[in-house]
Amino acid sequence: MRHQKLHKHLMKTSMCVITGLANVTGFDEKKFSPALLVKWKPNFVHPLMHQLPQPTTSNFNRDDKNEHPKKWTIIGNVTEKGFPLKTFVDWLNNGINYAKEVYAKMRESQMTDLEIFRAETRDIFAPEPASNKWTTSQHQCKSDCEVDQLPYMLSPNGKGNLLNYAGENIAGLNSA
Fold it and tell me: Are β-strands 45-51 and 76-84 bridged in parallel, bridged antiparallel, or unpaired?
């Protein structure tokens, strides 16, 4: 009964965060930690997935034969390229260590959190693909022309802001 309620709830939303699911299902997520997996298969090549963001109005499950399908799916593409699991774990550990350094700096500094974030992100958010500054460049205009050729169900609706593709406010992703 509990699983049916969860399934019904998940099928009505395009994004859902569930805390404590492991406690309910008995799943031991510690057996799947990146650090443990890399010990078993450090050279395992993780496939690189490319997914074109889609408007939430066109996310549907093709297998749902109802007149108005309510299920949500992601249509993606897996390439033959990839990266070793060890590379990912190294990157993950670097990110965790960097976050700890910034947190320690926040606790020790007289600066406000916002001032520290601005100082830290000055180099990180230099104009690059996937930043909002990139969306106004000549390259982005050419990209928009290409994307405009896609059928509606495949076209992202976040023109001008690459984090706004969802067509709705998602706390922490495209809104505060």
Answer: antiparallel
**Using a CB cutoff of 8 Å and minimum separation of 24, what contacts does 101-104 make?**
none
**Would you say 167 and 57 are in contact if contact means Cβ atoms under 8 Å apart?**
yes
* pTM for this entry: 0.43
pLDDT tens, the chain, 176 aa long: 667 887 777 777 767 777 777 787 787 877 878 888 888 888 888 776 655 555 555 555 555 666 665 544 444 555 557 788 888 889 888 989 988 988 888 888 777 777 777 777 776 655 554 444 444 555 556 666 666 666 555 555 545 444 444 455 555 555 54
